[in-house]
Amino acid sequence: MLATVESATVIGIDACRVHVEIDISFGLPHFQLVGLPDASVRESRDRVRAAIRNSGYEFPAHRITINLAPGDVRKAGPGFDLPMALGMLAATGVIQASALAGIVHVGELSLDGSIQPARGVLAIAAEARRSGARALLLPFENFAEAAVVSGLRLLPVRTLSEAVSRMNQSPADWPVLPTSSTPGTPGTLDLDLSDLHGQAFARRALEVAAAGGHNLLMIGPPGAGKTMLARRLPGILPPLSFDEAIEATTIHSVAGQLRTGGGLLTDRPFRAPHHTISDVALVGGGATPRPGEVSLAHHGVLFLDEMPEFDRRVLEALRQPIEEGRITVSRALQSVVFPARFVLVAAMNPCPCGYLGDPKRACKCTPPQIARYRGRLSGPLRDRLDLIVEVEAVPITALTEGPAGESSAAVRERVLAARACQLARRGHARVNAQLSGTELKKHAPLNVAGRRLLERSADKLQLSARGFHRIIRVARTIADLAGAEAIATEHLMEALQYRFVESMT
Ligand SMILES: Nc1ncnc2c1ncn2[C@@H]1O[C@H](COP(=O)(O)OP(=O)(O)OP(=O)(O)O)[C@@H](O)[C@H]1O
Ligand SMILES: [Mg+2]
Ligand SMILES: [Zn+2]
Question: Is 239 in the pocket of ligand 1 (CB under 6 A)?
């Protein structure tokens, strides 16, 4: 007896169809699994056997061979449990084999027959619709994320026996469930810029970062409000578009980071990995590569607090994603590309003890210690930080008596207007931070006075060619925030201020 059941696996963030072929023949009881299964799939045998028995069905005491095709695709994860069990029940006549045709099945079984949520269901649902599947049988908990894909019949189930009764039902009797292909309303971001007193300069830098997608480094003593500022960046970025939300949700789903029962992400991601993070956890990896923090931050913000404390190798690994907006993860058997376009916000103290330049507390660090601390950030990475600002602690009186700051909603209005200027000028959604040298010449020309100013500053700030371009990009954003067609001297002057700290470090 032979049965074939359709399923899918996820490679990178894309789903790939897998045919689960089950053959049951007479012979000594034996259960064999072939077709490039990884260790987690090989464990399926025990779960499937227990789940079938504990759901009240008979487990065939024959020779069972399961093949996962195509053979050259590496199969990972427990998502094949359910298709295997259903195929076996079809081979033994509990389900009509024809009932399974054209339906994609995915789900992990517990020993008692209940079905556990799976990773990557959004990608699998999208693939099922693309390939014209009749329906997707999926874990109940993954319903909300799959429901984002419209035009696909969804059959969420909690247990193996529920799956069996669905398959024995006429499709006319299947429940019709609502799909929801619109992102929910954002606004769960309850961190508002109005909580922040003072810090006019840093707030302005945050606004420029949001408007042009520029990476930002904040240098300041403990308690100055660096973390507070960084956490408020997602709230002033434009709302996620539908396509961005799909991409971000797919990544979170594949990484197993989607909230249980969660659907489409509504807010821009904010990821703040600790400085002890490994390079694999940051950029992604593993035997069957999973997305790392840089990809979980896709379309959002990656915040690296205490940046000099990160391992040098970890920081180096950030170069490709910052440059290209994606990361290639290579393993012996496969190489995958994950999207990773984010705004980087980094924070550091001015010195190891944190109090260098503080009017009230004395710094205890020696000059070599300070040099070593700052040196950890030198080189190519620092070259990719468009904005560098000093953040000084706000006096206590200003915290209690000073006026509250402007709200995030008000700042976001200006950011949206500046983004609209960028879109109108170029006709594509890439922000100023991503402009190439040639694009800069075209879209951000300087007048004579501007060129003079930059040339004069170049010596003082020891500007490299890259630093030169960076200043023009930032000036372009500042001009966009001002609604100005051309870059004026005042825009360049402000852009230069965001490099000034660097010349002192
Ligand atoms: N400008 C400010 N307005 C309002 N509250 C502030 C401000 N600056 C600091 N605070 C208060 O101080 C706390 C510490 O701020 P935050 O954690 O952002 O500092 P930090 O610069 O990240 O410090 P560290 O270097 O220790 O990480 C905040 O939770 C907030 O209560
Ligand atoms: Mg902090
Ligand atoms: Zn110090």
Answer: no
Residue nearest to atom 28 of ligand 1 (CA): 225
Query: pTM, whole model, 2 decimals?
Result: 0.88
Centroid of ligand 3 to alpha carbon of 271 (angstroms): 28
User: Cα(393) to centroid of ligand 1, in Å?
Assistant: 8
Q: Is 425 in the pocket of ligand 1 (CB under 6 A)?
A: no
Residue having the nearest C-alpha atom to atom 13 of ligand 1: 223
Q: Residue 303 C-alpha to ligand 2 middle, in angstroms? A: 10
Q: Which of 140, 191, 190, 160 is nearest to 81 (CA)?
A: 160
Q: How far apart are CA 230 and CA 194, in angstroms?
A: 14
Q: Please name every residue paired with 68 in a beta bridge, in sequence order, or none if there are none.
A: 20
Average pLDDT over residues 255-275: 88
Mean pLDDT of 354-383: 83
Q: Is the CB of 24 under 6 A from ligand 1?
A: no
Query: What distance in angstroms lies between residue 230's CA and the mean position of ligand 1's atoms?
Result: 11
Q: Is residue 258 part of a domain?
A: yes
Same domain, 243 and 280: yes
Q: Can you name the residues that pair with 3 across neighbouring β-strands?
A: 22
Domain boundaries, position 333: 193-434
104, containing H or E segment: strand 103-105
How many angstroms does the Cα of residue 324 sit away from the middle of ligand 2?
Answer: 28
- 254 and 361 part of one domain: yes
Separation between Cα atoms, residue 464 and residue 476, nearest integer Å:
19
188 pLDDT more than 50: no
Indicate whether 338 and 209 sit together in one domain.
yes
> Could you give the number of structural domains in the chain?
2
**C-alpha torsion 153→157→161→166, nearest 10:** -20
Q: 401: domain CATH number?
A: 3.40.50.300
State whether 206 and 156 are in the same domain.
no
Task: Give 286's contacts (C-beta < 8 A, 6+ positions apart).
Answer: 280, 331
Highest mean pLDDT among 34-38, 61-65, 461-465, 488-492: 488-492
Residue 33 backbone zone (phi > 0: left; psi -120 to 50: alpha; other: beta): beta
Ligand 2 is an ion; residues with CB less than 5 A from it:
227
Tell me the C-alpha distance between 269 and 253, whole Å: 13
Is pLDDT above 60 for 468?
yes
Same domain (yes/no): 8, 103: yes
Tell me the pLDDT band of 360, cut-offs 50, 70 and 90: confident
**Distance in Å, CA 394 to ligand 1 centroid:** 9
Computed over every residue of the chain, the mean pLDDT equals 88
pLDDT digits (tens, 9 = 90+) for 130-178: 999 999 999 999 998 999 888 899 999 999 999 999 999 988 888 888 7
pLDDT digits (tens, 9 = 90+) for 191-240: 899 988 888 999 999 999 999 999 999 999 988 899 999 999 999 999 99
227 lines ligand 1 (CB under 6 A): yes
Q: Within this chain, do residues 207 and 90 fall inside the same structural domain, yes or no?
A: no
| pLDDT tens-digit map of 406-449 | 999 999 999 999 999 999 887 777 899 998 888 888 888 899 99
Which of 226, 228, 401 has most ligand 1 atoms within 8 Å of CB, for mutation? 228
